[in-house]
Amino acid sequence: MAVTGIGEWSATVYLMEVLHRSDCFPLGDVALVNSLRHEFGLDKSRDRTALLERSEPWAPWRTVACFMLWHAYLRRNGKQYPW
After folding, report:
1. Is the pLDDT of residue 82 over 90?
2. Is the pLDDT reported for residue 3 higher than 90?
3. How far is residue 24's CA from residue 3's CA, in Å, rounded to a whole number?
4. Is the bond into 60 cis (omega within 30 degrees of 0)?
5. d(CA 55, CA 25)
6. Whole-number Å distance between alpha carbons of 14 and 21
7. What is the helix (H) or strand (E) element at residue 39, kind and residue range?
8. Mean pLDDT over all residues of the chain?
9. pLDDT of 1
10. Lowest CB count within 10 Å: 5, 20, 22, 51, which one?
11. Helix pair angle (62-76, 30-40), 10° resolution
């Protein structure tokens, strides 16, 4: 993240998609956070720490949970993966 323009979201998604790390949870991803809130009935007042705590039982497979939450988000909004 020392490179200008590469932030936490970019670095985390790179770890997930390119390096195939199994325990990542990019809380900077709006779709992921919205899906997590929707699927588990969490209100918007939950802060970042509370959302991360919600993902702890899924360790060391939080990346898999992300893909499932993203899929649920896309399906709920009538979209499909582009591939």
Report:
1. no
2. no
3. 20
4. yes
5. 8
6. 9
7. helix 30-40
8. 92
9. 79
10. 5
11. 80
